[in-house]
Amino acid sequence: MSASAVAVPPLPAERPSRRRRDGGRLGRSGPMTYLIAFFFVGICIGPVAYIVIGGFRSNSQIILSPSGFPDPWEVGNYASVLTSGIFWRQMGNSAIAAVATTAGVVVLGVMASYVLARYHFRGRTALYSLFAAGLMFPMTVAITPLYILVRELGLMNSLAGIILPQIAFALPVTIIILVPFLRAIPKELEEAAAIDGASRLGFFFRMVVPLSVPGVITVGILAFVASWNSYMLPLFILNDETSYTLPLGVQAFAAQYSVDTARVLAFTSLSMIPALIFFSLFERRIVGGLTGAVKG
Amino acid sequence: MSDSQGENTLTTRSPEGPSRVGGGATTAPSPARRARRGPDWRKRAEIALLSGPAVLLFLSFVIFPVVMAAYYGFYRWKGFGPPTDFVGLDNYLTIFRDSTFHDALLHNGFIVVASLVLQGPAAVALALLLNQRMRGRSVIRVLIFVPYVVSEVIVGTGWSLMLRTTGAFNDVLDKIGLDALTVDWLADPDVAIWSLMMIITWKYIGFAVILFLAGLQSIPEELFEAASIDGASYWQIQRRITLPLLGPTIRIWAFLSIIGSLQLFDLVYIIWGQYVAATAGTSTMATYMVVNGRNAGNYGFGNAVAVVLFVISLVIALVYQRYVLRRDTEGALTEGKKR
């Protein structure tokens, strides 16, 4: 279709239309554009910067001038959070929950998606619809029975009690992203593998798993960030401060040290750093994954 | 996986074999592949092995709790032992008569509408703006997405510190001479829901912009070329070509936004907590459910609220899909379901 790819230098004859297209589609970015964009970015980043910078102030600075800059910069708040056991404990809990959730979602999701994408059997449509229907069941609706179920299983205050439901609730999105992805692997490849003597399982492990890596990264990131930020489920399942994940930890810390605003800000900003690093590393994938997920 | 029996079973034992040869050649995979594979039991074992764990986990932690929510909703139940005190529709009658629930429902309705009105046009405008060729575009994209990635707890904690009466927000207003505007952003019932909308907009507009940018990029360039050759101006192109073609993306975004607004819990519960949300006028159905369900120890009642919340969301989702999304998803969704 669009044979005139962007990277290809245009033929002389094409040049005029190209220039006009840029004018039509992309517009000309005047100073006004930069101003608005800059303003918008400022609004997006401002509150985050407030948290991070506020952590470098002392409480008296914050009381005297709530919106000021640190003067002088205090590192004590950050130091006291970084040397507190509870912060690292909760960071560890969050990391374990997020990694285990991600691994579970990826492994179970790829296996189930492979079946749904490339096996033909009666009930396949029903199975796919069942998972797709899962999109309609947000955790909010199921949270109370889920809490009771986890309690009956004896998993209260344990990370397994949030990991298992998180995997289950992440499966629909994962499967909806991965099934078209796995279906797109050319049949010729599977036929070639079969001719070479690979079974369907052999094809799965040798060809599908490596080829599905880009899709897997997308769903893995979505699962990781969702788990890292998850609030409602831990709120119900984890009642003991040593089992808290960071979101609960931030809230508890903010309640406990409500007069020590500077330290709350330091704790809060440190707890978002891992997610931000993770996000900036995989930003393209996250954005691509979200838009891909939305488009079905 | 050494696999020699692939050769042995060059038969049409697969039940799907004949019908597929006759039927839809477009959707079915090539028959040759099917026949070469192992016997039927082996295929079934593979299906069970590969999809079994996911199905099991999904059934026990998603479907089962949802079904149980419907069941518990008919009982007065404190959450211990099996529910025995069957009360029929009493829980539901209580919900529909409770003015606190009416308030929460009203707040949800307001949030749904306000989210669409506040975020939609602004996000489209920003996406059009950022779709222009400009320096630092990729950096800008990352930065506007940051609020979406930061967790609700951090957003809630940070914003409640900024918005408290002695917080940074009022301080800034003071400094720029707008001290007449300083109010109690979180506790004043007339203002609190607008503060909530401000925070929601801040947190989720980046998602809308990124979505729309992706939608803009999928519009074929030829259309813009053709239009500009025909002498269309920039604004004409945006109005006549870009916006209509961005329609599907906008409609999907609106769908996600509506469902998200109906289910809203985290931000409200974090900022206003269980006691203040109702008096500040920011309670939602979900916070009502948690406060009057688990926190009050009335598990049966809480489940009934969950069912009401679910049914409301489902009805809205179905109506929306039936009347708004249908033309967009005809290709995408039905394709998966027809198979």
UniProtKB/TrEMBL annotation, chain A:
CDD domains: TM_PBP2
Pfam families attached to this UniProt entry: BPD_transp_1
Domain ABC transmembrane type-1: 91-282
GO cellular component: plasma membrane
Main localization (coarse): membrane
Segments of this protein annotated with the region Disordered: 1-25
Molecular function terms from GO: ATP binding
InterPro entries recorded: MetI-like (IPR000515), MetI-like_sf (IPR035906)
Subcellular location: Cell membrane
Biological process annotations from GO: transmembrane transport
Keywords carried by this UniProt record: ATP-binding, Cell membrane, Membrane, Nucleotide-binding, Transmembrane, Transmembrane helix, Transport
Membrane association type: Multi-pass membrane protein
Superkingdom field: Bacteria
Transmembrane segments: 34-56, 95-116, 128-150, 162-182, 203-226, 264-282
PANTHER family per the UniProt record, alphabetical: ABC TRANSPORTER PERMEASE PROTEIN MG189-RELATED, ABC TRANSPORTER PERMEASE PROTEIN MG189-RELATED-RELATED
UniProt similarity note: Belongs to the binding-protein-dependent transport system permease family.
Protein name: Thiamine ABC transporter ATP-binding protein
From TrEMBL, chain B:
Native species: Actinotalea ferrariae CF5-4
Localization annotation: Cell membrane
GO cellular component: plasma membrane
Classification of source organism: Bacteria, Bacillati, Actinomycetota, Actinomycetes, Micrococcales
Chief localization: membrane
Family (UniProt): Belongs to the binding-protein-dependent transport system permease family.
Chain residue ranges for the region called Disordered: 1-39
All residue ranges annotated as the ABC transmembrane type-1 domain in the record: 105-320
Swiss-Prot/TrEMBL keywords: Cell membrane, Membrane, Transmembrane, Transmembrane helix, Transport
Residue spans crossing the bilayer: 47-74, 109-130, 142-162, 191-214, 250-272, 299-320
Cross-referenced PROSITE patterns: ABC_TM1 (PS50928)
InterPro entries for the chain: ABC_transporter_permease, MetI-like, MetI-like_sf
Biased composition (Polar residues): 1-14
Listed name of the protein: Sugar ABC transporter permease
Topology within the bilayer: Multi-pass membrane protein
CDD domains: TM_PBP2
Protein's GO biological process: transmembrane transport
Lineage top rank: taxon: Bacteria
